Amino acid sequence: MRSTDLDDPLPLHCSPLYSIPKLHGFVSPRTVNMEELKQLFASLEKDEGPLSLRNETMFKLLATTGMRKQELVNLTWEQIDLFNETIKIFGKVKKNASKRTCVFEWTW
Predict the structure, then answer these.
(1) How far apart are CA 89 and CA 102, in angstroms?
(2) Residue 42: what are its φ and ψ, rounded to 5°?
(3) pTM given for the model
(4) What's the half-sphere exposure (Cβ side, CA atoms, 13 Å) at 59?
């Protein structure tokens, strides 16, 4: 039985993932810091184009709810409860589909 104590970790070469080849040229996605997020929101709020409200809403939902891109694409009005200020988010459509509820406040 393997120890789960963090002071006695399993050596890296014992991991079954150790033999999987590394992806060459793969770069992990970079996260956006709070200042960059504020700049993005400010830019979106200044935009007066025909899709500006849609774009602003989409980016704010993605950034503030943790919603994945496909969950946003699949979002329907039935999932949005304006009275209770909640959104029901349905995960991947597979055997173990997850469902979670995000709370939001209308501030714009």
Answers:
(1) 7
(2) -60, -40
(3) 0.61
(4) 16
